[in-house]
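Bench log, entry 3. Co-assembly request; chain sequences pasted below exactly as received.
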Amino acid sequence: MARLVIEGLTKRFGRITAVSGLSLEAESGTITVLLGPTGAGKTTTLRCVAGLERPDGGVIRIGEQVVNDLPPKDRDVAFVFQNFSLYPRYTVFENIASPLRIRNISKEEIERRVKEVAHFLHIDHLLSRRPIHISGGEMQRVAIARALVRNPRVFLLDEPLTNLDAKIREEMRTELKRLQSETGATFLYATPDQAEALSMGDRIVVIRQGHVVQVGTPQEIYHYPRNVFVADFVGSPGMNFVPAIFEGENRLNVGPGYFTFTLPEDAASICRKNLKNPEVIFGIRPEDITISQEKRESLYPAQVEVVEPLGVIQIVRLRLDGHVLRVRSEEGAQFEIGERVFFGFKKEKVRIFDRMTEERIF
Amino acid sequence: MSSVRVEKLYKRFGHVEAVKGISFEVKEGEFTVLLGPSGCGKTTTLRCIAGLEQPDGGRIYFDDEDVTPLSPAARNIAFVFQLYALYPHLTAYDNIAFPLRAEGLPKQEIRQRVEEVVRLLQIEDILHLKPRKLTSGQKQRVALARAIVRRPRVFLLDEPLSNIDAKLREVTRAELKKLQKSLRATTIYVTHDQVEAMTMADKIVVMNFGDIQQIGSPHEVYHYPANLFVARFIGSPGMNFIPGKVEEREGSLGVVIDSSYFLPLGEEQRMALQRLSPPVRQVVLGVRPENILVVQEAEKVLDGEVYVFEPLGVQNVVTFRVLGYLLKALLPGDRVLRVGERVALGFREVRVFNAETERLIA
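Structure output for the full assembly:
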């Protein structure tokens, strides 16, 4: 297993720049997640690392070796694709063994390694079957087993769970994470799914339009998003935003005109110091808002727009004139569509963004 | 709008029984979701209601009218595949008017009916725009307006949100629910996504292998799943299961797990078990992930070891290894556990299933 370093990677397709000066480090033995919407440049980055695309600029290093000029087969990386393809006429065993066959490894060794990896992925009982006789989830396990059997320096996984059913996706997520920690493999894992990124990543690299937006642990990305884009993209539902004016001292006027409240001193002092322009965006996560049916001090009125039960919790959408606040609330409380309610929020959880740059200030 | 009644619907494709004599009702104005994995028969059921498939047995009624022999056109339904499929070269107005012009209605009446629906959907201001100038929310409303302008008796939707990205899906879901409520439209909606079903439905019909597994409100299917299939399918992650044996210890009836742990049962469950004749000994305990708690030694039900830790921002999914089983728990986001750590686990609310029939006892 090895460390992967990408420095200033650029890749253009005609006039479109898919990846633009992207740098990241995937530490050996960890999962680094590339998180971003469709078209962000995730797949292109992975394909450049694998040697399937030729970069227009930048350096890719695996271990201490610069691999830019190596053909794919000499890079010693394994690629798991979103649309996994297995050899239909081979059995599961032969599919998993295929990368070893071309490498001059003894029959006994091949058998041992295939069985070991198959056991790990709970597909031991399928080894003699052909792909058409197994389910989609099982096929993806076989594809992963085929990548894993080789013990490569780096694993590149391109949305490997995207095409699976929600239930299987959830199970595979847990299993893949366990598998990586037991094998100590280096994963570079691309996904558009923020839940997958948070749950699997040791570190997350959020990318957008070919650029790195933020690098951090799941906790950092979730609690201290770099800007409005990350705050909105991460979380389900994402952060709520309402325009606001910082009125000096500790006062934040949200709406403006909906309500004014006193910011905690740490937030206010950063605003006083760093704000060039009083126009900001007030941000709060859905779980940091509470709803009450009674009017109390420091609660603000809103109207229930829609209620979405999710079992033990529910998402309540509150209308605040032109804005919607999504609130994560306990299931017990009953709200009617159109009902007037009052909401409050944890002031220490408020995030403040510059309205011009959309960068987080606090 | 009409009510819909499906009676003993049966449909076969060659040797495959797609729908095996199912019955359910949809009240006027109700939002009913047919939920199940692929191949469960939900889409076939919907297509039979639409008249796109001819059933091999059973009847379909709109109000009290038997529509089974009627052609799709004569049933007066609106079948929506995708909420965004608009004619790109036509204005919003012309898109909405399209089905009425196709029917050859007089101009005056077309105008009147379009005006009526656009007022309801609050899209009066955008009628002159072509689809590419519309936001996604406006496109949806136009697509819905086009569907309802014909005054259908029933709305049928087949996985309309499956091809859009997660963020947009979340917004559309809420929007669609709100519109359905304001239109009071009888709606039958097919999906494999339990989140869509939970958040939008008044009533969920859970299907598997061509049969109905349960009919109930989101609250009922979540808290009182009729069998192990429903319990596993609903919720994310689904319910955890632990086999056990009913025994009396120190005068209280409970479940013995692995002969070493004893979980006393609540009043309701004791009574339900005592009422059974013949008595049931072998059971499966079902515990939702949010009802697994890390507790003090004194309140312990089971010992667990952290197997995988997956942060999700607002909460963490922790997989515990317990007696050879893997149990998934949802713990608060600030509760961080290390892989390998041993903890005492307690249960807040359990369900008891018959191990043999897999049905809910209490």
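The two ends of chain A are 38 Å apart (CA to CA). The interface with chain B takes residues 37-38, 165-167, 170, 173-174, 177-178, 181, 192-195, 198-200, 218-219, 222-223, 232-238, 285-287, 305-306, 308-312, 315, 317, 328, 331, 337 of chain A (CB under 8 Å).
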